[in-house]
Amino acid sequence: MLIFEQSQADRFNKAQQPGEAIALSDIPSEFRRQQRVALPGVSELQSVRHYTRLSQKNFSIDTHFYPLGSCTMKYNPRACNTLAMHSNFLGQHPLTPASNGQGFLQCIYELQEILKEATGMRSVSMQPMAGAQGEFAGVAMIRAYHDARGDTARSEILCPDAAHGTNPATATMCGYKVREIPTGDDGDVDLEALRAVVGPQTAGIMLTNPSTLGVFDRNIKEIADLVHQAGGLLYYDGANLNAILGKVKPGDMGFDVIHINLHKTFSTPHGGGGPGSGPVGVSERLLPFIPVPMAAKTDDEYHWLTEKECPQSIGRLSANMGNSGIMLRAYIYARMLGREGLERVADYATLNANYLMVKLMEAGFEVALPGRRATHEFIVTLKKLTRETGVTAMDVAKRLLDYGYHAPTTYFPLIVPECLLIEPTETESKEEIDGFIAALCAVKQEAYDDPEKVKSAPHTLPVKRLDDVRAARELDLRWTGEESLIKSG
Amino acid sequence: MSNTPNELFYTKSHEWVRIEDDGTFTIGISDHAQALLGDIVYIELPEVDSELDAEQDCAVIESVKAASDLYTPVAGTVIAVNEELEDAPETINGDAYGEGWIFKLQPTSLDSVKGLMQAEEYSALVAEDDE
Amino acid sequence: MPFIPHTEHDTQQMLDAIGAKNIEQLFDEIPEALRSRGLDNIPPGLNELEVTRLIKQRAARDQPLICFAGAGAYEHHIPAAVWELTTRGEFYTAYTPYQAEASQGTLQLLYEYQTMMSSLMGMDLSNASLYDGASALAEAVLMAIRANRKSKSRRVLIPTTVHPDYRRVVKNIVNNQGIELVELDYCTECGQVMVDSLAQYEQSDYAALVIPQPNFFGNLEQVDQLTDWAHDHKMLVIGVVNPMAMAVIAPPGEWGEQGADIACGEGQPLGIPLSWGGPFYGFIACKQKQVRQMPGRIIGRTVDRDGNRGFVLTLQAREQHIRRSKATSNICTNQGLMVTASTIYMSLMGAEGVERTAMHSHTNTKALLEQLTAIEGVKRRFSAAYFHEVVIQLNQPAAPVLEKLAKAGYLGGFSLATDYAELGDALVVCVTETKSDEEINQFAHAFAQALR
Hints:
The complex is a heterotrimer.
Chain A: H1 44-55, H2 78-84, H3 87-90, H4 102-119, E1 123-125, H5 131-148, E2 156-160, H6 166-173, E3 177-181, H7 191-197, E4 202-208, H8 220-229, E5 233-238, H9 250-253, E6 257-260, E7 280-282, E8 294-298, E9 301-305, H10 324-362, E10 366-367, E11 378-381, H11 383-389, H12 393-402, E12 409-410, E13 419-422, H13 430-449, H14 451-455, H15 468-473
Parallel strand pairs in A: 2-3, 2-4, 4-5, 5-6
Antiparallel strand pairs in A: 1-7, 6-7, 8-9, 10-11, 11-13, 12-13
Helix pairs in contact in A: 2-10, 4-10, 5-6, 10-13
Chain B: E1 9-10, E2 15-19, E3 25-29, H1 31-37, E4 40-44, E5 51-52, E6 57-63, E7 67-71, E8 76-81, H2 84-87, H3 91-94, E9 103-107, H4 119-130
Antiparallel strand pairs in B: 1-2, 2-3, 3-9, 4-6, 5-8, 6-7, 8-9
Chain C: H1 8-18, H2 48-60, E1 66-67, H3 80-86, H4 89-92, H5 104-121, E2 125-126, H6 133-147, E3 155-159, H7 164-174, E4 180-184, E5 208-213, H8 223-232, E6 236-241, E7 262-266, E8 282-286, E9 298-303, E10 309-314, H9 320-323, H10 336-373, E11 378-380, E12 389-394, H11 398-407, E13 410-411, E14 414-415, E15 426-430, H12 437-451
Parallel strand pairs in C: 1-13, 3-4, 3-5, 5-6, 6-7
Antiparallel strand pairs in C: 2-8, 7-8, 9-10, 11-12, 12-15, 14-15
Helix pairs in contact in C: 3-10, 5-10, 6-7, 10-12, 11-12
């Protein structure tokens, strides 16, 4: 039931009223709202019960193994949330003078320092509010760098064909044309193809390493040299940083600018789709362009750097300092793990992924790149199963839900047919992973024995398989009080 | 196996062209293309009277999981679009070569179809795709 | 090892299965020359007790000031249930709802949010959130340029009464695509944009006009006249509005003859703590005919195979993971958890609750204005009607006054000296429903002291 279906027009929640209604005699009627806002009229208990019950319809890390490739669904320590919700942090208006926020600023400054060490970059700004905004900041800096040198003929950004969709979309938002580079059969970027397209028109290249195929690109040094020799810069998409924390740093691989997803590697919550936080790190040559505000330290005083102190900065991308509360959670996480804990993240994320991959291969699953080490994730392709049974990767994903496991990422990267991208993360136990292997094997067997059962899954969730074709053809994007779906143009 | 009528011309990007008696061209997407896209949920049609260069993108076809640009196979002026598709884009899934036509073009040159594929060649390409 | 469950026995068994001697061997594809020597500059780990001590010490240094500032972030009461529910693990630790059947909680909540937000804005539909108010305005500008088929212009009119940092953010985001923002002046007497000053723009082509409501000064713009003027000149209208104000002030959908085309803004006033400016969330709403130009996630209602109601992500072909370089935006992760809080907030407050909150915020501001203007050396700056912020003119520079107020424990407002030098020593102050009459009296008293 929707909250609106429990509503009564004259019911309201007395405890949440700030006082009696007052006439607004000094606001002329031409400025006043005509039609009353249609918010539900429910009691506090009705609302609490409704949203508690809704929450129970979700899979989440706290309730289920969630091996969603490329998303790093690891445990989000509760202490990070509890401490970040301290009333002295939550109650601070963004205009609060720095002198009144030394404790908070110290946390942010030290987080910048931690991220510098983890990535090998010269400086880090916390301004971007998600990975895609970090990408935007990065490519905007690449553009600012070329422009500042009067090198304005560079019009192209290179992206591997397996890249996250945010990479080409970001390049477009920064006014660049996108040129795709094919992936070689071994999963690394096709160097010959790269050589053929890199040139004086190349502004830069956007790479994820380990790549979205779940392997470490062994030619990264050659790629960096090729692009740098042509005058282009290298952008590192930090989506997969969890796999290499403490093992190899993007700065050492030759990247000029990077972003980090705090909601992946630094375990801040995904919140059903955000908020994230996408800090950017830069090499020496991009330092003047880094976005503001940034936390800085002079003697023992912390303060904000703004456009005033950084005139060449690409500026701010948020009205305030970015997603401050998320930064606090990441800071607390980093302090709890410390240097040795952070290094072990990559160790056990990689151990879990390789174990899971090997066990699935033993069970007869086909992996996309069998000759390669898995990083923190790997790809299974079900094209043989689909050919033999008609059961697709999507069907398998839905059936896994019945077994109490969230599905891996499906149909990404786009270049591998019928694929599952599987990322167990370091916080899952061997028992949990063994349970997942058993479930996947059982689903595969069902695909041969009773394919209809898999194709019509899920069977045990709050809803059966949903009709997303109908959702797109007969758009119904808000409740109008009628069961009939609106037909739209 | 997808259906590939012999009297039509085809492109690598899976459009088809029919030469009408009056010398205009009718253009749509192949049966193979509609099958690849899956259930089509929306189409953004070209604008009538717009002048197109060969291989220019001029329309967008969306399914739930994909969006595909349509490229005009030859240069010319758009003289009609299939407005029925705006309300019933699924027609393309059901009848890609008939009721599912997308637009009509007054071609700049009748010879322009010479660069396109015949049914046999296109079928071979599709077979390769299916590998 | 914090948060890693493996016993030594587990690790050994797993390595044996892989056929590796040790974990180190799993990294053998990384070229040796690139390997790093650890993370020495990161301090050693702390247990939960130690990190709690550390963070509490840091927090103790930061006693919040009593807040009489707004300027884009507003302190409102947040019912206790809002964050109790929002931080339930099932909401807090779920991902973007790609697997719809396992995400009906988040999806239904977002559909309810879209319903509430589109009603609040008087628009046909809303997306499921953007990052914040400033970046939402940038997305609205990009959307308007895509959506305006009558104009080929890549220029947009934006009054200087829009939040200065919003204008900076919009410029930073759209300038790489060759989009030009043309700034409109305001009347320095009344503090709003005058329609009769716009004639000079009638000869050129612009894609859109941005209208703030209330504007950065807290004043109400003449939205009906502005909207009709823009539509008469083939521009789309983007309203950038405070959602709490919209409980009592005409929302974008009611502006002029046809209503605005796009509404956007900062969702923070609806249940989100101030929290040093983030995380907040941006909202964007539009008319039905522009839905395919909308950026970000959108939830739709559908049915399952048994014909029962359910919810899914829809219109995904607009988005970066499908459309890649031709997507409407590069946005992927949005601010889902903030919208969760806002939806619960709106359900607990109801129409009556948000209206009364807006009313009390306004009347408290009016009460403060009366007290402040009774002080010698303080005048009201503008004549236009206002909502819950108002500009006052001082007889001395504002910055030192604000410093003295901070020493007395108050965040006294925002000085306009940097962004609006033409206004001289002016300050914008804000009062919400959270302040009692006594607190307002005390602040006015402290203000008088600070002016001495």
